[in-house]
Structures are given as C-alpha cells and as structure tokens.
C-alpha cells in the first residue's frame, strides 16, 4: 500500500516574514518588493498541496504553480486580486505533478492571453504518462482506496495495533482525507492546460526593471524541475527540488543521484530567500545542504549495493539512513511515516532504478 501511495500521490532557518492575509488554507506572505508567497498550512502528510508565488510587476503578474484543484486555485486568485488588479501574463509550472498544475484552468479562464511556461519534459509528460497516472489515481485502487485506508485508521484511533493515535497523527490523517476527497470531487472534470512556452535550459523574462530567470539546473524531484530565480531580489522559487520537513521522492520519477548535484547548483545561486515547493520560507541554505547530503548518501550506498549485484530487497536492507531519519523526522510518528514511504521506500527504489540503468549502459 505504501509503494502504491508514493506512486499515486506524488502526482532550517526561517526568515521572520509576517503573513499579510489568510485566504483559504494558506498564508499570503510578502517576501520582497512585489513578490508574495502563498504558503500552504496543511500538515505534511502522505498527500498535501503546494506553495504558489505571485510576482507583481509594473504592468502584469507572473504566477508560479497553481495548486492541486480548481477550487484551491480559485482561492489563490482571490488572494491575488486583494493585492492587485493587474492581469496575469505568465503562469510558470515548476514541474508536472498535479499539486502544481491542476489549478491552471482557473488562470487560463481568467486570463485568456496568459502564457503557460514549463520544462519541455512537462509538455511531453502531461498528455501521456501524466494522463495515465491521473486515471490510476482516480481509479478504485488510487485515491478511493487511500481514503478508505486512512478513514479506517482514524476510526480505529490506532497508530498501530494497541497504540493510540497521537494528536499530530489525527490532524494529518484528517487533512490527507480532506485533500484526497477534494481531488476526487474536482479533478475528474478539470482541464489540463499544457505549456505554451517550454524551457530546456534557461529563459529570461524582463518585466520593466525586474529580471526573472527560469532555469533548469538538472534532475531531482523529476527530470523536468524548473527554478525561478530573481537575481536582483535574491529570491529563488524552487518547486519540489526543496520540500520541508521531509522530501517527497517518487519511483521512478525522481532521481536521488542527480538531486544532490542539482541542489548544489541551487545553493551556488546564493539566495537570500528560498520559497520551497512545500514548507515555510527559508532564509539560508542549511536545509538544502541537508537534503543534498541525504541524496548523496543514498546514491553512494545504493551504487555499492548494485555493484555487488544485490536486488532491490537486498539493497533496501543494506541502506543505513538512521542519522538522516533523526534529522528529518525526529520523534514525530507522522514524519517517520513520510520518511518511510518517500525516502527509505520510494527514494531508495528510485536510486536503485537509476543505478541499475547506469550499470547496464555500455
């Protein structure tokens, strides 16, 4: 069940910014002049929603990521309208997962002239593999089974047999169910808006005096992760290259072996403000360095195991992630559950897939 969830649902120093407004289940936070982040407040569980960003320019707006459903995207647009009446000119999708793209139709309908920007691989993914994965998520073995399993745990009130749920587990289970139910209610009829502009390596947009660099630094969470860099403001919007407090890793879509190198390139931009795909705004690169260390260790350990000729089960047993588990999850049952599913589970599997492919390559 955990492996299925990972595949289906994958569709630190904090800067003391004050929230300007609360609309829906997010806080609108000013991070620099004309730049506002919509930071999600749902707990970090097996499923969640993504942060978004508004870049308000002299004459128009750039939106980065549009959340999981048209309903949450409508709330996002309402928050934007409280800040400005300028039209949205560009929507940037940092990658192809549903919690970053399924609100696109709201912005397409509101702003017919807007362009949608994503990596070339996102355009390749969405009509094919993305469509099939979305159908699978909506099938009885996808979100409905996920909701049923979580409801059963909540009703039994047990973390595991004989162990009552703690308050964090109750809150997170309830949130996961609510998010999954909204997905099933809204997204079967939602339109997927494809990119109208694609990026391979870099695209620079000039809006008055503002410079917006849209860059591809390498594989990580997916093979098509884009970073939005505002060099004059020292802001980076990372998408799911940065996920707090525990990274979401998917098999086979993620690439832990490359992820550490990509994060090092991101750190080299020397950002003052980091807006992650999930989690709070950061003011230094300490958490990014920790993520890079984690993925570097997974790659190194998996490479050794694959070189020995181990299969996936043998590889899993050989990997030691205890120190990282403590740093990312601590004593939290919820974070340990996420770590088990997405890091020790899917993360090791994704690294195994890549290492096996490299071994077979001439």
Radius of gyration: 20 Å
What is the number of beta strands? 15
Give me the CATH fold name of the domain at 2-128 and 190-284.
Metallo-beta-lactamase, Chain A
The CATH class of the domain at 2-128 and 190-284, by name, is Alpha Beta
Instruction: Write down the secondary-structure element order.
Output: HEEEEEHEHHEHHEEHEEEEEHEHHHH
- Strand content is 15-25%
- Please report the number of helical segments: 12
Low-pLDDT runs: 1-19
Percent of residues in helices comes to: 40-55%
CATH 2nd-level architecture of the domain at 2-128 and 190-284: 4-Layer Sandwich
* Class of secondary structure makeup: alpha/beta
Distance between the termini: 36 Å
Report mean pLDDT, rounded to a whole number. Answer: 93
- Order the strands across the largest sheet as they lie in space: 1-2-3-4-5-6-7-10
The CATH homology group name of the domain at 2-128 and 190-284: Ribonuclease Z/Hydroxyacylglutathione hydrolase-like
Largest beta-sheet characterization = 8 strands, mixed
Which overall shape is indicated by the principal axes computed on the Cα atoms? globular
